[in-house]
Amino acid sequence: MKKVFHIVSNKEWGGGEQYVYDLAQRQMADGYSVELFCRPVKAVISKFEELNLPIHPLSLKGTLDLSSAWKMSTIIRLQDPCIVHAHNFKDAFTAAYARKMCGNDRIRLIMSRHLTRTGKDTTLYRWLYKQLDWLSFDSEIARNEFYSTQPNMDRQKTGIIRTSIILPDKVTPVGLRQMYGIADNEVIGMFHGRLDPEKGLDTLLEAVSLIRQKPLRLVLVGRGSDEYTAHLKDRIAELDIQEKVVLAGFCHPVLPYVADADFGILASTVREGCPLSPQEYMSQGKPVVVTDNGGQREYVIDGRNGLLVSPGNAPMLAEAMMRLIDHDDLRRQLGQQAQADFNDTLSYDHLYSQIHSLYDRLSTSA
Description:
- By secondary structure, the protein is of the alpha/beta class.
- It has helices spanning 15-29, 42-48, 66-76, 89-102, 123-131, 140-147, 176-180, 201-210, 226-238, 255-258, 277-283, 314-326, 328-346, 348-365; strands at 3-8, 33-38, 55-57, 82-86, 107-113, 134-137, 158-160, 187-192, 216-221, 245-249, 263-266, 288-291, 306-309.
- The two termini are 15 Å apart.
């Protein structure tokens, strides 16, 4: 039986915790023995307890937390071999110290990098880079950003494993047209996610105002701060597009809403490593219009499965949306290819097979 220890140290449930939850669940179903190191935070522990896996609470205070490292070392010292999988650098430090303390050279240390940030090149980090057996990034843009500061990490021990989504057996559309009185001849464009300035929503609203004569209904699914939500409502009124925009609020699960859209939109102005919302549209056979500044440009190919636009460029975004509004056949063609590409290279099965192969390769070398 293969043994793996995951480490999570956030104080609340978030995307990283869900990533580990999904992976641990799949690994256990595949015959792995999985255990977890985490902080003694009820909201996190109670969720992972659903998996019925051993949980080891540790303080996990960061880079120099030798106490947590010692406690970890007493648990992993007799494993032969095993994988310790960290999901940020501070936890990778703890795992590296623990491996040194227990003296078990058959332990393999992996880290998944879920952020797009530059690498550090201090003495302490140079030491850690040498301890890592593998460093995984969620996109090529994230790896390039990491190496932009020339950290002393062997590039041969890095790779790309994109995050993905687990699809339910069946997705039933919610009936957006009936819910919001959207006419049959109107095309539904949708954004879903956090309502935040960095998502380019101001640009999106401006783009809608530029094509207000087109039969488009924009549905915004998600929530944000009270201040920014109020700003969006004011902006919608200023642009006089109240009849074109639906603020649907937080909706869970979101895929039934996605399945009712005609196309998806991600107008982010920041560089995201591997945003999941475009994948969700693609999984349901919907084309996407996305900005070309993040990891989404690595799997959304302009004119193949979606359309790429420059961030902050309302006229260009409006033009792309207008193409999808005016041409049903283009929407259908791009959507079919989007779904095929998702199934071939972006599905959770694809992610899992990459991690499984990585574990096998490293375990064999232990």
